[in-house]
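User: Last request for today: this protein with 3-isopropylmalic acid, please.
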Amino acid sequence: MKFKIAVLPGDGIGPEISEQGVAVMNAVCARYGHQVSYEYALCGADAIEKVGDPFPEATFQTCMQADAVLFSAVGDPKFDNDPTAKVRPEQGLLAMRQRLGLFANIRPIETFDCLVHKSPLKDELVRGADFVCIRELTGGMYFGEKYQDNEKAYDTNYYSRPEIERILRVGFEYARRRHHHLTVVDKANILASSRLWRQIANEMEPQYPDVTTDYMYVDNASMRMIQEPKFFDVIVTENTFGDILTDEGSCITGSMGLLPSASTGEHTPVFEPVHGSWPQAKGLNIANPLAQILCVAMLFEYFNLPEEGRCVREAVRASLDANVRTPEIQVAGGAQYGTREVGVWIADYIAKG
Ligand code: IPM
Ligand code: MN
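Assistant: Here's the final one, the structure of the complex with 3-isopropylmalic acid:
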């Protein structure tokens, strides 16, 4: 296959992990005879500084013309501490989601046995936990009508039937490809938007007789996720609930630095680590590149190249087993590897076959 990849390194540790994602992409393409080319584009605080816009038109065009976007991270404390800032890096992320029509955010929560001890949960609860959270990404309160003055404010949790149907379909299809268990997470006891979600999910259920569908209120789901994470196979939920639940999910695995995500929808899909830009670590060569590298696995899987995906996952596991790890997951007394060294080790492992 011929891949045209838009690379958006962004801010903080973004450029460093991006480099390793590209190195691994190159190694897999070389091994399996794919051609790949890259187009780099600005986003986040970096883009605000250079062109005054966190998701410039030129970046949008580069994304539209690519087969996939390899995204790293955006965010800079400069903006967090400035309440008067008119534009913020995060707005670039929302603009990208909206303009590329990325309505389905797929966040796999996978645990690695060798990292289970880093989890805040007991070993037996978390070992073997493996589920996918499908978060609606272009609707709900994030994008609904908003209002704010000094006395009142509101955000509208608007969802239309087609928006709900298309994301539920992604959920059902995912469950079908996994362990046939879908949990629809909502707040149907309180919210009208949730009641419509539940109604539509009920209507769709007969089309997926091979999938066991259950319904859970979001407060209960957040509790269940720490009490019994192995209960879940595929979760599907709206934008805001998905934002919160995926942070919870990511920390129970032991390292947020290991979780990739895919955002897919109407136009070019985006592959992005779940973690942020970790500005304090910028340039120090200590950030874990594995989430970004696993994004490359998800990218190949998206294009129906499971063998290439497996090859990346196997190389990541081998690096962990060989203790080639960045400081935050290194075992006591083990050698310390940098972002670059871990990436190079994995790319070499793939090249050697
Ligand atoms: C995420 C992030 C974003 C979100 C922010 C940075 C806009 O928290 O991707 O989960 O809230 O969606
Ligand atoms: Mn979030």
